[in-house]
UniProtKB/TrEMBL annotation:
GO biological process, one term: iron ion transport
Cellular location(s): Cell outer membrane
Keyword Mitochondrion: no
Domain TonB-dependent receptor plug: 2-83
Record's bilayer topology term: Multi-pass membrane protein
UniProt keyword Endoplasmic reticulum present: no
Pfam families xrefs: Plug
Designated name of the protein: TonB-dependent receptor plug domain-containing protein
Organism: Hemiselmis tepida
Amino acid sequence: MQSVVPSLRVSQQQSSSNTNFIIRGFGNGANNAGIEPSVGVFVDGVYRSRSTSQISDLPNLQRVEVLRGPQSTLFGKNASAGVISIVTQKPQFEWGGNVEGTVSNYNGYRAGAFVTGPISDTLAFSLGGNFNTRDGYVEDLGDGPDTNERNRWGLRGDLLWEPNDDMSFRLIADYDEIDEICCAAANVINGPTGAAILAL
């Protein structure tokens, strides 16, 4: 996302649940569970206060909005640096759906699907699910397992009630589970300064 949005920087810390969003050089909180970020993340208008609750492969994504600068007037607290607003598709009153899948190296498998349709003239629903798995690609030379694996899945349900043309209500429930051993990093090439520093 940062490749197409000016002034946005996305970084991952020690784990996949420690993702940090920085807008115009401002952002904090991903590396400390006690600090809420200054870039607020909202999914369908609901504030997600921790990075762990923001991770989900939403199969029915409609758009992602990046709002730069203070947004507290519209979004409340924790939006002093900006907002990332994720909007999913509303349930439709016509039957539809989507299925997608990907196979990659390291036994990587990713799939997502959703279905939507009417229950009555005023009530529609959508159901979606996803999973994403991959073996670790960093080998532990000790007794530990390979790290930097991926193992996550999620479910999402959405009900839309439109009693008339001027009123609508949405009831959304989602559940995501992440069980990963992440994240490891290694130097590809040791620089010439390493020996000098160790000699001190």
